[in-house]
Amino acid sequence: MSSSDKYRKEVMNDLAQGNVENLDAPTNLEQDYENFDDFAQRSSHDERRRLFGRSFHPDRIPTNQMEPELQKAIAQIKPNERDDVAQAFFKHLGKRGLHDRDLEKQLGLSTHHASRMNADDVSKLAAFAYHNHPDIFQEVLAEQPAFVKFLSNPLVGAAFGAIAAKWLGGRK
């Protein structure tokens, strides 16, 4: 296991077991998570949106460093989860007047049907949202956190470290 993987695992364990009392919204102060999957399933959408919103933004992690990580992460998630991620991006981008057929042409996607998209297509869509509409990117992460656990860049690890530090800040 590489040092980056070990660090990511440690951060994820810290995040999963973190004290949530430092969050802005009222939460269950006794909440404990077994691991990231448990966190992704049991944490609230608003909780994930706040945490991911602070960490996953082009001002914190440059697009040129995030895009390769998105490609690797999306390639590792299950096809049905990848479909869900693509559908979520299309839904939110559509609300901004960016329709699936237009995005297909603009981004050079193989299709505008989320269920038929390959990992490369979803990566292009995610990178577009990250760079041009970071709020939509953060919203989709909050709705579909499955691929977050596959991000491994040290800067992404640092972002999770910041999340863990916020959670663990009140712990003695």
Task: Give your account of this protein's structure.
The chain has helices spanning 3-16, 36-42, 45-55, 63-76, 79-95, 100-107, 119-132, 134-143, 154-168. With 172 residues, it is an all-alpha fold. Residues 19-30 and 168-172 have low confidence and may be disordered.
Report the β-strand fraction as a percent range: under 5%
What value does the average pLDDT take?
A: 75
**SSE class:** mainly alpha
Helix fraction, binned, reads 55-70%
Q: Would you count the extended β strands for me?
A: 0
Low-confidence stretches: 19-30, 168-172
Report the order of strands and helices.
HHHHHHHHH
DSSP summary: helix tally? 9
Shape field: globular
How many strands, what sense, and barrel or not for the largest sheet? none
Distance between the termini: 30 Å
- Backbone CA Rg: 16 Å
